[in-house]
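We include this case.
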Amino acid sequence: MKALEQNEALRLTVGDLLKDEARGLRLSLLSPEVSLAREIANYRIQKHGLVFAGFDQFFEPERIQLMGAAEVAYLETLSPERRLEVVEQLCALNPICIIATRTCEPPAELLERCQECDIPLLQSTLSVSAFFDAVNRYFENFINPETTIHGVLLDIHSIGVLLVGKSGIGKSEIALDLLQRGHRLIADDVVVMRFRPPATVIGEANAILKFHMEIRGLGIINVEDVFGVIAVRDNQRVDLVIELIAWDEYDGSKRLNLDQEVFPILGVNVPKATIPVSPGRNLVTIVEVAAHTFRLQKQGKKTGSGLLDDLARRLNYDAANG
């Protein structure tokens, strides 16, 4: 189980941005002889166009500096002498690194000066807006805690339901029936959980196991191939945890669920329901009803607790009136 609990212990360098190609940053290095060990301490991006005009009051060198087509085009309008002066002003501020986007060719003066000042100069094939989105997702995944849980995560009418329980209890079989009813699979067996501030947990599949399920007696199936693309989705907020337990392990004293159970994931207390498993029980329908009940409760509607409140009022009334 992997969990990044202390953000202060994380260390991200410029070199890490180049190594992690799976994040879709599409980066290449233009200044190969500079050090890539510079640590990125500020996970916000800055565009430095005003520096070209000589205004650097709000320039933050610890942030990645992004150079788009507009900045490169502006530099090309300058005379060689003025362009060199502007480039020297930028590099004198010693930014952590500079990234040019959409295959913009930075001027030779910038490349040479970055080499001399040991400033990493990178290039992405993405546009400015696309790079902003990609790098923000990268930072978000890097700095937020994550862990893995053994279970099955499903989207049941937009409610993220996580099925947990001992191996062989029937989680995958229940999920298979739910897929036949039109619900969607996010992950089977290994669910990767990521924390999202302020108090949300997002689940997704392990990259290798994505959209696959193991059904005992049948083997491994590809859900997307069998049920179609509509039966899967990449990730889902975890709204409700349903724990499946053997019938003889069920505590009958909690059958009315008077106290809401919770299942802690990365510091977030996710509502939990415990469902006993026995032959003949229609667990698929029960899981669907649990998801619908949770949605009604989120909308402020009373379910079973409304009946208990009415009974309590009636008992109090009878006691007060002899």
User: Anything to note?
Assistant: The chain is about 35% helix and 25% strand. The first helix runs from residue 14 to 19.
